[in-house]
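In the laboratory, one determines a bound structure by crystallizing the protein with its ligand and collecting diffraction data. In a computational setting the workflow is compressed into a single prediction: the sequence and the ligand go in, and a structural description comes out. We illustrate the idea with zinc ion.
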Amino acid sequence: MRTNIHKEQIMKLLKKKHLLSIAQIHKALPDADYSTVFRNVEQLLKAKEIKRVVVDNKSVVYESSHESHDHFICNDCGLIESIDIPHVSIQGRKVDDVTVRGMCDECSK
Ligand SMILES: [Zn+2]
Ligand SMILES: [Zn+2]
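The predicted complex, in structure-token form:
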């Protein structure tokens, strides 16, 4: 298989930076156009190399699948923190990742 330079660059970026949107990935890869970035992200998702984290209905970010933590998202300021939640099966369902929402320390002051 032909090595795809953009896929490699995206994986490298996500290793350095936790959680990036497609727009942020695009900004970091000036030689790739937006649709190329979008297509590569879709392919990496399919290959399970990266994971999608849905912040809200307008904002989706991505991270490497090699991360093994879960996320806490603040409903007020949108802050995303890495947290560890034990993955037990819940009512017979296998749990891959968990996202919990609430209010971060700053916002609850
Ligand atoms: Zn907050
Ligand atoms: Zn994460």
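The longest helix spans residues 34-46. Keep in mind that any predicted model is a hypothesis to be tested, not a measurement.
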